[in-house]
Specification:
Radius of gyration: 16 Å
Low-confidence stretches: 155-180
Number of helices: 2
Number of strands: 7
Number of domains: 1
Strand content: 25-35%
CATH architecture: Alpha-Beta Complex
Mean pLDDT: 82
Structural class: mainly beta
Shape: globular
Length: 180
């Protein structure tokens, strides 16, 4: 039986799916988003986050990325759902694990200006667009009660050949947020 996927021996590290951690920081009914630049997803709005490192727990990654990018120190982390996205004409494949942080300390700062134009708080029903593809996939899970459906299907995309998996493959239902 033949497969359209390359054999294990021909797959190099750049072809393997990556694991990202998206940090949904909430304060007074608003979520923290930054306008991405300099990497995949440039010119889209996304949550703080980054790659899960070898041997690192998801909660540790979320805390580390939040502190590195925003100066905020997470007090409590709640594991959430995951989503799967194939981006940039099939050249990038990500599994993104979301976590929620609604208790944190510190003052919001822009600590990686080469990766983000700035951080802003947005109401879930007034999100900017375009959104980073994993965040769109998260929103399609229906976890946010008041969402402007237009942001899910905004006509502009910095990825003209953005590929996504069928909606039945978006995430799972384990690890539900307490409010979700």
């Amino acid at each position: 039986m033949s497969s359209s996927y390359p054999s294990e021996s021909t797959i190099n590290e750049k072809m393997r799916p990556r694991i990202g951690v998206g940090v949904l920081v909430e304060k007074q009914g608003k979520v923290l988003l930054g306008k991405r630049k300099g990497s995949h997803g440039a010119f889209t709005w996304g949550a703080p986050g980054g790659h899960l490192e070898l041997g690192e727990k998801v909660e540790e990654c979320a805390k580390r990325e939040l502190l590195e990018e925003t100066g905020l120190k997470a007090v409590a982390v709640t594991l959430g759902p995951w989503v799967e996205d194939v981006m940039e004409n099939g050249k990038k494949h990500y599994i993104t694990l979301f976590v929620k942080i609604d208790q944190f300390e510190g003052e919001l700062q822009l600590l990686e200006p080469d990766k983000c134009e700035g951080w802003e708080w947005f109401s879930w029903d007034q999100l900017p667009h375009p959104l980073f593809p994993p965040l769109v996939s998260y929103l399609k899970l229906g976890r946010v009660p008041k969402i402007d459906q237009a942001v899910l299907f905004a006509p502009f995309s910095p990825f003209p050949n953005h590929l996504s998996l069928p909606s039945s493959n978006y995430g799972h239902t384990k690890g539900k947020f307490e409010n979700g």
